[in-house]
Amino acid sequence: MVVAFLRQPPAIVVAVLTQLHHGHGDQVSVLRRAFFDGDHAEVSRTVAARHLAASDVSAEFVAAYFERAGAADPVDRALRLDTEVMLVDDPVKRLDSMTMAWGLEARVPFLDLDLLAFTMSLPPRWRAPRNGVAKHLLRTAFEGWLPDDLLWRSKQQFGDGSGVAGVLADKMAATVTPGDLAALRRQAPVPLRDAEEAAYYRFFAQTYGTGSAELVAQFATTSQAGEMPDGTRR
């Protein structure tokens, strides 16, 4: 079974919430384009048959979650899905593990249950991004308390903000020799920019029976706009 949720860059999340708030398009389709790594047909071409579900279980799961009572607004539905499913076993768990390992407390105030209940009770239009800026209400509340360059800076991806991205890239790249890289570039049906992407391609090929440009691009931590071996830009 493959459930195709993938955490996306902050700019993508802002765009999704903005589209949902303004009612642009079918709600499940909006989330699919941003958070799925492909539709069922694309996943079927990428993943070996033994790992596939019989139907598009990811879309079915989101559609059923959106139909649940208690969240009438599309923004509320998306944030409920994010809060109850996507955040719990991924970024929240990682943040808690990393901070607790060093004796740091990062769960308060933003995971305080009373604060969460209060913020979820606010009108969705107050919580939706404004002019492309996420957490606009929170930032405004701290004007005059924090420097503007800190308060209004762009959000970074978890790996970039924590420094993990460079560590993971180096670790993956170290598993591929120059000879391996040359051989994998000849073998792969997609261009591979560097040793890190080659390492991910090899892992997917060995595990799932094929390599995929979509999967390599999603998991490699090098810039999505980096130069390809043939000189083109991704």
The low-confidence runs, each spanning 5 or more residues with pLDDT under 50, are 1-10, 223-234
> Would you count the extended β strands for me?
0
Quickly give the structural class.
mainly alpha
User: Could you say which overall geometry the principal axes of the C-alpha atoms support?
Assistant: globular
What is the overall pLDDT average? 77
SSE series? HHHHHHHHHHHHHHH
DSSP summary: helix tally: 15
Topology of this protein?
Elements: H1 10-21, H2 27-35, H3 40-46, H4 57-67, H5 74-86, H6 91-101, H7 113-121, H8 124-127, H9 136-141, H10 148-151, H11 158-162, H12 164-173, H13 178-187, H14 195-208, H15 213-219
Helix pairs in contact: 1-2, 12-14, 13-14, 14-15
